[in-house]
Amino acid sequence: MYNSRYIRNLFVYNKWGKKLVKENILDVGCDRGYMRDRYKNYIGIDISGNPDIIVDLEKGYIPFKPNTFQVVICLDVLEHLDNLHEVLNQIVDISKEFIILSFPNEIRWLNLVRYIFKTNDREFGLTPTNRHKWFLSYTQCRKFILDFAKKKNLEIYDEYVVLGPVSKIFHKLLKWKFPNLMPYAYFVVLQHK
């Protein structure tokens, strides 16, 4: 389980990045460009932080031609956008081979407890520029991606559900009845056919 953007990016690098990235990579919503030092041909875009190129995904297009990047990553970004579908379509267009996406599971038990007891206003009271506009469960994210992949003629290369140590035990016991209760996040790697 990751508890910071840096750790999340390190997880992606170790799980897929070292193996998949042979040419160039675009990091959509890069924040501070945590992967910049790990890849020779890296470009990060974001509206804030420390991107190579400032891009407001809600007001414009990703400024690259089709099939520009071997790998495009977009980690915990799409749920912040009103135009999620449009941006995801652009990501598919500019990628040549792989797309790595992640989504938080907003329906996990810890979020529900925080919401009920209002113990973490930051989680649900994000500033207007950083708030979630899509509140999706793990199963909703997965169904959305599977349907999208089929429509766009993409294959699922890999999937990964992030679970904490205790959550793993409960997830094994409860996933048949409550599949959204324990997952922290959902990662998926899409591949062009």
Written overview of the protein:
By secondary structure, this protein is an alpha/beta fold. It has a single domain, classed as Vaccinia Virus protein VP39 (Rossmann fold, 3-Layer(aba) Sandwich). Helix content is 33%, strand content 23%. It contains six helices and seven strands, in the order αββββαβαααβαβ. The chain has a seven-stranded mixed beta sheet, sandwiched between helices. The two termini are 30 Å apart.
What is the level 1 CATH name? Alpha Beta
Order of helices and strands: HEEEEHEHHHEHE
Number of strands: 7
Distance between the termini: 30 Å
Please give the order of strands in the largest beta sheet: 3-2-1-4-5-7-6
Tally the structural domains.
Answer: 1
Helix content: 25-40%
The CATH superfamily appears as Vaccinia Virus protein VP39
Q: What kind of assembly state do the chains in view correspond to?
A: single chain
Largest sheet: 7 strands, mixed
Task: Provide a compact summary of the structure.
This protein has about 190 residues and is of the alpha/beta class.
